[in-house]
């Protein structure tokens, strides 16, 4: 579904990514791991148009996207969560989820002003989909709460619900369980399994190695901006380069 060919990104002449190549297969959960500073979030930002690669190509379903702005990439069917929470604190939980459907709501100011029956029907359908997403993530009872009053774990679930409500073809998850306790992590893990079983394609950036080894179909390892290994969790776990560059420091960085 997603293919990267020799992707590099430099900041002021310093390489954050160097000739990175790998594929994200359809219907699978691919984990992108590596020590802090390995380039994982930079890679997601390049995939979503937040950053433009210095060189190389990123293609999504055979279409080149590495030169597209973020809003056009989103409209192609790629959604994401963020390493640092990006929710709207003054909006309600339901309103936050509805922002994940912004590409489907139409952009005609005249229709919005006239409140035509078609538009009212469309708004009702979008609200029903948002409520269904809240139900999947156990947030229905908090639909009308201001997002700012939620506990941290609930805010993480709001981001996940928003990222999946639009039925994206590819979901990019940047450390979805960071800062969560064991019970909250287990809940998120189960939700990711359900998403995969329903056919969603996901790329997961995560430091929790137990979670990665448990749910990933494929693991890609970055170290100092370079891809040093790709394979199944078992293959990566036993790769000497990975053991030296990352897994040997897992306890210190997880």
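^ structure tokens above, recovered residues below v
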């Amino acid at each position: 579904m997603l293919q990267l060919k020799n992707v590099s990104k430099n900041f002021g002449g310093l390489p954050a990514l160097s000739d990175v190549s790998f594929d994200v297969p359809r219907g699978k959960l691919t984990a992108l791991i590596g020590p802090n500073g390995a380039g994982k979030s930079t890679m997601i930002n390049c995939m979503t148009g937040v950053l433009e690669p210095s060189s190389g190509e990123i293609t999504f379903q055979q279409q080149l996207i590495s030169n597209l702005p973020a809003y056009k990439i989103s409209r192609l069917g790629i959604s994401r969560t963020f390493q640092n929470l990006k929710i709207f604190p003054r909006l309600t939980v339901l309103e936050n989820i509805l922002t994940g459907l912004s590409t489907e709501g139409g952009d005609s100011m005249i229709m919005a002003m006239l409140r035509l029956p078609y538009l009212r029907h469309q708004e009702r359908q979008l609200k029903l989909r948002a409520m269904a997403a809240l139900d999947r993530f156990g947030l229905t009872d908090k639909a009308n709460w201001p997002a700012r009053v939620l506990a941290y774990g609930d805010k993480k679930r709001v981001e996940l619900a928003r990222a999946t409500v639009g039925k994206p073809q590819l979901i990019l998850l940047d450390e979805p369980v960071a800062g969560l306790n064991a019970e909250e992590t287990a809940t998120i893990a189960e939700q990711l399994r359900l998403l995969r079983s329903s056919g969603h394609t996901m790329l997961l950036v995560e430091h929790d190695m137990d979670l990665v080894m448990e749910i990933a179909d494929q693991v890609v390892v970055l170290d100092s901006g370079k891809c040093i290994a790709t394979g199944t969790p078992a293959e990566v776990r036993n790769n000497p380069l990975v053991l030296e560059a990352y897994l040997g420091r897992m306890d210190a960085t997880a």
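Residues 250-254 have pLDDT under 50 and may be disordered.
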